[in-house]
Amino acid sequence: MANRHEADLDWLYGREQRRSEPEPTRVMPAPADRGESRAAAAPPAAAAPPAPPRPAVRPTPADYPRTPAYGAGFAPDPRGVPPQGPGGPYGPDGPGGPGDGSRRPRRRRRPVRTFFRALLVLVLLGVVWLVGVPAYAWSQVGRVDDTPSGKRPGDQPGETFLLVGSDSREGLSKAQQKKLGTGSVAGQRTDTIMLVIKPATGKPVLVSLPRDSYVDVPGHGQDKINAAYAIGGPDLLVQTVEQNTGLRVDGYAEVGFGGFVSVIDALDGIRMCVPSAIKDQDSHLDLKKGCQTLDGTTALGYVRMRKADPRGDLGRVERQREMLAAVAKKAASPATVLDPVRYWRLCNATASAVRIGQDTTIVDTGQAALALRTVSAGDGLTLTVPVANPGYSTPVGSAVLWDASAASDMFAQIARGDTSKLGKYAK
After folding, report:
1. Measuring CA to CA, which residue among 31, 49, 51, 50 is closest to residue 40?
2. Which of 153-157, 233-237, 422-426 has the lowest mean pLDDT?
């Protein structure tokens, strides 16, 4: 027994020499004393791994695994927790990202906001263009002395604007006079005399005063109304109109032959509907019946022609009103306002063509333009002063004699600022 016990101890404490071949598994005998045997036979227990040190600071988002950025296959968390992306929930430049975490995250510019900003800039530039070009042109307009002498009518409701078409050849060469059919008559007369009325009540009115109207010219007796301009210029013409109509003139403008042509050409012509064929050698006019576009030269002949018109001067004033309304309509059309080239040419051509009175303001001119635009759209009235005799014989030749009673009534209604009952005088 002693040898066997010694052999067991040698195996237990490893004192036995290792053999070349593996030793077969031995069966340990049951010890007599369970407590001592178990204590002696049990292998030493493995040491427990040391507990990880407790962090001194709170972990940051950088300590956690990084996941794809928000939007790369992730939907918002319904609990309201922002999804994790590179560098944490705020992107690379947020806390824990490669950038400076103290900076606020960058926001992407929204295409819609950028579009509306660009649109706003374009609108502002358009407004500057639409206002700036007429303002510049206004600074280039010539001025004339139109203030009459003597007693004048008092202020009246509404606005009255005197528009004159002069037959001045000033600035026209011999070749241009021949081309336009104006002749080379010296001096200035008025081929066209119109009153543009913007009343306090009622529709705007455009009133024609025939150039051969036989009236009293202050200081010069009875004569044709266009003689007033030839004798004393704009101021005497204004005084003559005020004295014979009872209306106070608030604004004045005149345009010559050359200016009229340049304005029509700046608009690329005016479309008119000719009721019958016209052929007039004096005005160099040869038109077929029907609607057609007239250039500046042809349009001038159309509004000046009277010998080929059986109604003479009365027919001419109707064509002049028709032409003026067409010019106002086309000048205010979107095709003109939105075309930078045409808009620039029109404003500068008008500035070169027109001369205004010394006291005429841009407000007066603007109100007259709006009234003309309303008339051209068919929402106003076009009138000719009531006539008693279109071929009245006078010492200065055949003239137009007004119907004194009807003309006095028409002008009295205008002077009161009410045009609502002038329909009976419409022509």
Report:
1. 31
2. 422-426
**Residue 346 vs residue 170, higher pLDDT:** 346
> pTM, whole model, 2 decimals?
0.67
Structural Rg of the chain based on CA atoms: 50
CB 355, CB 141: distance < 8 Å: yes
C-alpha 166/C-alpha 387 separation (Å) is: 23
Measure the CA–CA gap between 10 and 402, rounded to whole angstroms.
157
Residues in the chain: 427
Query: Is the confidence at residue 141, as pLDDT, over 60?
Result: yes
* Domains within the chain, CATH numbers bracketed: 137-425 (3.40.630.190)
Give the count of beta carbons closer than 10 Å to the beta carbon of residue 392: 16
User: Residue 161: what are its φ and ψ, rounded to 5°?
Assistant: -120, 130
Q: Residue 207: which of 216, 217, 199 has the closest Cα? A: 199
Q: What are phi and psi of 337, to 5 degrees?
A: -65, -35
Amino acid 374 reads: T
The kind and range of the H/E element at 216 are strand 214-217
254, with CB counted inside 10 A (0-12, 13-18, 19+), is: buried
Neighbouring residues of 94: CB distance < 8 A, sequence distance ≥ 6: 87, 88, 101, 105
Token pair for 290: 């029907």
Q: Helix, strand, or coil here: 365?
A: helix
Question: Considering Cα of 152, then 153, then 159, then 165, what sign does the dihedral take?
Answer: negative
**From residue 419, how far is each of 41, 202, 366, 410 by CA, in Å?**
131, 5, 20, 9
Q: Is 88 helix (H, G, I), strand (E, B) or coil?
A: strand
For residues 141 and 354, the answer to whether their CB atoms sit within 8 Å is yes
